[in-house]
Inverse folding.
């Protein structure tokens, strides 16, 4: 009687479809990936050539110097106080226009901080003036 000799098979994983699977995974991750976009500052620019006279009692001016110091209607204030000072006036005057003027060397983070505080104070009309040359 012959006993058939068993062959030893070593288990292996078929690699023929690995490239297809890898390609499908790459496509999957490309499709589901969301790329972040910077929103920036939302500004609505007036149409070209339109000029409106604004009464002076509806205008509040904020100027910032090279060091980032904030002057609110002629008074030097701390950067963190802008929101509280402007909020009370903005609540009583819904036509308030806040003008923000900086110099060319004003730190950008201070300008953004003032803009954020004006937004949190509920100011809807902000005018950014061009720095002096």
């Amino acid at each position: 009687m012959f006993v058939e000799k068993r062959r030893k098979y070593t288990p292996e994983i078929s690699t023929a479809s690995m490239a297809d699977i890898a390609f499908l995974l790459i496509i999957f991750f490309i499709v589901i990936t969301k790329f972040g976009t910077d929103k920036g500052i939302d500004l609505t620019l007036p149409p070209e050539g339109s000029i409106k006279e604004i009464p002076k009692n509806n205008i509040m001016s904020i100027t910032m110097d090279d060091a980032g110091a904030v002057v609110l209607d002629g008074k030097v204030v701390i950067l963190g106080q802008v929101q509280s000072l402007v909020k009370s006036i903005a609540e009583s005057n819904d036509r308030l226009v806040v003008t923000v003027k900086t110099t060319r060397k004003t730190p950008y983070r201070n300008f953004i901080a003032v803009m954020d505080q004006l937004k949190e104070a509920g100011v809807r009309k902000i005018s950014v003036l061009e720095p002096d040359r």
